[in-house]
Amino acid sequence: MILTPEESALVVRADWLYLKHRIMEKAISLLGQVQEAVGQLPQWNHVPGGVPALALGAKIAKGERYKDLPYAILDYPRLFSRDDIFALRTMFWWGHDFTATLHLAGHSLLRHRPALRLAQSRLAASGAQLYLPEDPWQHEMGEGIYQPLEACSAAAWEGALEQDFLKLAKPFALQDWEGVVPAIRAFYEAVLDTMQV
Question: Would you tell me how many other CB atoms lie within 10 Å of the CB of residue 70?
């Protein structure tokens, strides 16, 4: 277990760890701003009583090892049960990106399927990408995992809507930190518009 020269240079320094902790605190704060922005979306006004009950229970989780890198996730709104999933999941993943994801399954997918069926071009215009794998709990963007919706055929879109779950996502560069909250809000607003929430 001998340290490499690079590891030896880091083990005697603490400053980079303090920087990492500050960045993670700022990422969590940023996710709190996303929560506030999503809660103010005008689409929730179409629901009797304002923001639906499922939107009141936001959850921010963080960890050190999603594929060996630190991350923070906001689920808001969030509804996860055996027969229903409706979630907007926003993720900060160190070294990669921010992602904004719509995740539907069960009753929520059935409820929104007719509107989504007609919305492929509008969703594609928002920059949405379609999740391809069978495991709904993978969060990495990339070729073979997500496909730009504009590149999906109508038949592929129809097939995706008939699956057990649907995930649509859009990545945002970490370098766009200062503008990411309004950009994520705009993406969620566009997606929810197509669903006629």
Answer: 18
Question: What domain range includes position 79?
Answer: 5-195
The CATH number that applies at residue 90 is 3.30.930
Other Cβ atoms within 10 Å of 171 Cβ, number: 19
> Closest by alpha carbon to 103, among 142, 63, 146?
146
The model's pLDDT over 1-14, given as tens digits with 9 standing for 90+, comes to 899 999 999 899 99
**Six token digits for residue 107:** 């009753």
**Residues across the chain:** 197
Single-letter code of the amino acid located at 149: L
Q: Are 85 and 129 a contacting pair, CB within 8 Å? A: no
Note whether 95 and 89 are within 8 A (CB): no
**Tokens standing for residue 34:** 């996303």
**Residue 80 half-sphere exposure, CB side, CA atoms within 13 Å?**
13
Instruction: Write down the pTM of the prediction.
Output: 0.90
- As for how many domains the chain has, the answer is 1
Residues 97 and 127: their CA atoms lie apart, in Å, by 15
Q: How far apart (Å, rounded) are the C-alpha atoms in residues 191 and 197?
A: 10
